[in-house]
Each structure stands twice: as structure tokens, then as C-alpha cells.
């Protein structure tokens, strides 16, 4: 399961062939298409839980990047254009929820470790919450893990 994979899970039903072999196929449900005709699709189950908290106090969204920049002074070593001579600057990048655009903010050198720790705190919290959800789903009758275990058979 991928990180933050909260999508629908297909409901499977057990079937037997005429030779007694067990196989699994999805349960089907009727639905009405936009043009008014009737179609069939695999029945899906959506897990019900509250959404993950985006950002808590003491946490930061995004990631930290080190970039090479030029200062603009004509006599500086970075003006030569060589990559090795450029200055380094740190930026935090994140995706803005409201505009769906990537944002970028300069981070002072003295604040780099603090920002890095805040970003890591958020990542650790999300990973723990995702593990809890996967465990919760593993106990359910229609869980993805249970479905795959049934299809694979005994190990």
C-alpha cells in the first residue's frame, strides 16, 4: 500500500469452478451512466475515518532543498558561471492547498536544522497514522490485505 493510500477497495467474492477450484472475482453493482444507460462495475468499499490532519503546531509542510545561486556582483567568484563556484542557499518547497501551486521560501542558514526537524516531525506523524490505518484495515472483513491473503491462499 502506498503512502496515504485511502482509495476504494474492491469487494471480492469466492467462486468455485465446475472442477471445485476456488477463485475470486469482484462483486458487481449496477450504476447509471451520465447518458442514462445502465452499466456494471466492480463494487467498491470506502474506508470510513476522519482525514489526516494536514499540519500541526511545530510541524512544517514540504521539503528542504539546497540550491546553487549567484549573488549578482560582477567581481564575485559565482559570476564565472561555473557550477562549483556558485553560492548555496536553502529553500523550503511545499504545495499550497488553496491555489494548488508549488511555493518556495528562503530559509536562513541558522534555521536550517530547525526547519529540517519540523518537516521530519510531520513526516513521522503521518507515517505512524498511516500504519495505524493499515492495521485497522487489516482487521476488517473487506480489507485489502485480507482479500490478497485469501486470493493467494495459505502460505
Q: Could you describe the 3D structure shown?
A:
The strands form four sheets. The chain has a three-stranded antiparallel β-sheet with strand order 7-8-9, with helices on one face. Strands 1-6 form a two-stranded antiparallel sheet. It is of the alpha+beta class. It is built from two helices and nine strands, in the order E-E-E-E-E-E-E-E-E-H-H. Residues 1-5 have low confidence and may be disordered. The longest helix is centred in the C-terminal third of the chain and has 28 residues, at 112-139. The chain is elongated and about 85 Å long. The chain has helices at 112-139, 144-152; strands at residues 9-10, 12-16, 22-26, 28-32, 38-42, 44-45, 63-69, 87-95, 102-107. It starts with 8 loop residues before the first strand and ends with a helix.
Average the pLDDT over all residues and give the rounded result. 78
Strand content: 25-35%
Helix content: 10-25%
Order of strands across the widest beta sheet? 7-8-9
The helix-and-strand class reads alpha+beta
What is the rounded Rg? 25 Å
Q: Which stretches of 5+ consecutive residues score pLDDT under 50?
A: 1-5
Strands, count = 9
Please write the string of helix (H) and strand (E) elements.
EEEEEEEEEHH
* Apparent shape: elongated
User: What is the first-to-last residue Cα distance?
Assistant: 20 Å
Main beta sheet: strand number and arrangement?
3 strands, antiparallel
Amino acid at each position: 500500500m502506498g503512502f496515504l493510500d485511502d482509495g476504494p477497495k474492491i469487494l471480492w467474492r469466492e467462486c468455485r469452478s465446475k472442477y471445485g477450484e476456488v477463485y475470486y472475482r469482484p462483486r458487481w453493482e449496477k450504476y447509471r451512466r451520465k447518458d442514462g444507460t445502465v452499466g456494471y462495475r466492480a463494487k467498491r468499499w470506502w474506508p470510513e475515518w476522519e482525514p489526516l490532519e494536514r499540519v500541526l503546531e511545530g510541524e512544517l509542510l514540504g521539503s528542504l532543498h539546497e540550491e546553487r545561486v549567484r549573488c549578482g556582483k560582477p567581481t564575485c567568484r559565482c559570476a564565472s558561471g561555473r557550477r562549483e563556484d556558485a553560492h548555496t542557499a536553502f529553500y523550503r518547497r511545499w504545495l499550497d492547498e488553496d491555489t494548488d501551486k508549488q511555493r518556495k521560501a528562503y530559509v536562513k542558514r541558522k534555521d536550517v536544522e530547525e526547519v529540517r526537524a519540523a518537516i521530519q516531525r510531520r513526516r513521522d506523524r503521518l507515517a505512524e497514522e498511516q500504519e495505524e490505518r493499515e492495521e485497522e484495515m487489516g482487521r476488517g472483513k473487506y480489507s485489502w490485505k485480507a482479500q490478497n491473503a485469501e486470493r493467494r491462499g495459505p502460505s
